[in-house]
């Protein structure tokens, strides 16, 4: 499969996977959905990949746009029970603002809530290798708490990741162990750090004190698929048992955005971001004022090189201020606007792919035409040179024919892949996005009394879908 077809396939697969989360594909009551959260690089995608045994993109996804959320599932062997894990982007990421991260979480979690899909628990990952609770880690924990709003955290686990391998063989090939004493010391230091993490209230202590269970994921540190899967599934198994005993309440973010119809900036998580944005804006404005003063002085002294430097700095701060202004605007978005934005993002991806497919097909058709012309010419030339069709000429002609056949096949394949994308376009926009729209509509129609209409709207959408196009390997039930 060429890159274009495989990108189209990935896009449709992602839309299909997300349909269980937005409620478009109905889950059985015994199925479970867990959010996997934590700072960037804490191992979320790796955890999801190992646990579900699926091909998850580790590192950053194919598209680092708003749809940077994905869901993967597996069926527990021997039990007809499907477990979905939602892989999420982390807060305080260098590539995206917190408001973008919160927007995408609010879009999908809001849609799932409005469509009656529950989140049964949260897995928070924290790399034990972080030598202190960094600002990024603190930010993530703060945002998770604000999004949850739970009074008890029995349905949340905190798992430390990145434990170093216990022992490893030296590179000398002698088979002797590396200095195990110093490894033991390193490990003791990590264990001390772990205790600090889970007892200090301002770190992860508050979660633990209110019922969160603590795990060491892949504690022996070997990058072994089976060991990692076993460890991840043990963690998930704990959350399944907890959710079987008592279901957690809906996330505060879901209630705020759907039931209370708050804008993003009015939600608890949004307010934390708004506070930071305000501080950053004030800081930039002060920097700008100081710079202007400086510039006036330098202009008086006619120091051209320093003036240019200050002008550069000023442009930089103005850019940051503009970004902060735009982010402030994003905080005003309601669920309807978030949904529209997400739908637009999907449509843009589809349109880009559609354009690339058309260009690819046009190019391949042109190549094919040239090949067909050249083989026609060769045939005519050979025929005119000899009255009899020789065995050699026949062989040569056959070779050319094969090249043309292969080119023809390529055109057919590109057209098929394009047709497939077009067929699924409707499912992506009408399926995934309408799943969200159903959420929005439901909340608006019922104004908070969600339950009755949730299923009827999403069911109508499900019935309207062509279940065949989605394939049959889904974990979920299309009615
Ligand atoms: N040594 C070690 N490396 C790990 C472990 N888990 C993940 N990694 C590596 O850490 C890097 C980041 O892992 P990801 O799974 O992409 O982390 P993530 O949290 O999804 O990161 P973002 O998508 O950027 O938020 C990758 O190179 C992984 O191979 C682990 O348990 N031990
Ligand atoms: Mg990831």
Describe the structure.
- The protein is of the alpha/beta class.
- The protein has three domains: 17-167 and 179-263, P-loop containing nucleotide triphosphate hydrolases (Rossmann fold), CATH 3.40.50.300; 268-330; 335-451.
- Helix content is 62%, strand content 8%.
- The chain contains 13 helices and six strands.
- It has helices spanning 3-18, 44-52, 98-114, 135-148, 180-199, 201-209, 225-245, 252-259, 268-301, 304-330, 335-385, 391-446, 451-464, and strands spanning 32-38, 70-75, 82-87, 121-127, 156-161, 213-216.
- A six-stranded mixed β-sheet has the order 2-3-1-4-5-6, with helices on both faces.
- Helix 2 (44-52) crosses helix 7 and helix 5 (180-199) crosses helix 6 (201-209).
- The radius of gyration is 28 Å and the shape is globular.
- The two termini are 31 Å apart.
- Residues 60-67, 169-176 and 443-473 have low confidence and may be disordered.
- This is G domain-containing protein.
- Keywords: Coiled coil.
- One of its GO terms (cellular component) is myosin II complex.
